[in-house]
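ok so I'm stuck.
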Amino acid sequence: MSPQDRLFRSEMPDLQKLVKEMLPTYSQKKVLLEKIKGRIAALDAIEQKMTNLKQPTPEEQAIFDDVGAEELKEKAKYVSGELQKMVDDGGLTSAEQAAFLEQLQGKFEMVDAEIAKAESEKKEKKVAALKQQREMMEKSQKTVKDGPKASLPPLKHAAKLGELHRKLSVLKQIEKASKGNYTMDELKKLGEMPEIQEACSELESRSRLWFEEEEIFQNRVQAAIRAGKPAKGASKGSGGGGAGGGYAAAASKPAASSGSFQTVGSGGAKKAKAKAKAPSTGNAFSALG
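replied:
not stuck anymore, here's the structure
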């Protein structure tokens, strides 16, 4: 199933676990809420079509036979509550804060227009309700403006990925320094570069979250790579390892335990070919499940 289908069809306890693990940011939860609302609107339209004695298409019938609107409304309520909690607790990143405040400004204009209309029509109860809504919006605006800026969540496999990129950096230094005149030991190490790069791509894929924008994902990947960079002055031979070296163990471990919530994304660094022509002496990638 797609992430959307899994979230739509999950029982509430499973949904809560999935949201916590796979949608940790405000932006991701907001995407889910929009998808839920979109499905509810589609169900309402299909029901109206059937009420008018019109035959639904096979696609519409499949949607209608899937999760019902009432269940989805309960899930929308839960996700909305989680979004508000992140606003109240200062859980938005700098970019999310800017987007939230911009969107909120548009809502202020709409509410002010509704208040003016209700006042002209002398609808006192509606005016009071709208003003109360505006006060809540003002409170959220102040909370976000004055609140801290949250950091992006680290990659699930950041430590392993950083270690592998650190070793790649050392091997690239060997390539640059030797300029094609490699010793047998250097050829042995360089021959394993494609396997390390392939393992890096797989670990990146396993670290991708649901409904995550590519730019945000790449920012998290680069943060993991920066954290794994070798210290200045490290010897060119350090960290390379022999056949089946330390990176082989780091890459061959299965994904961290996450039950049925482990995912494989479509992202990952492009694979590059090593200059060395020596055959690989180990398989750092083969044990990745």
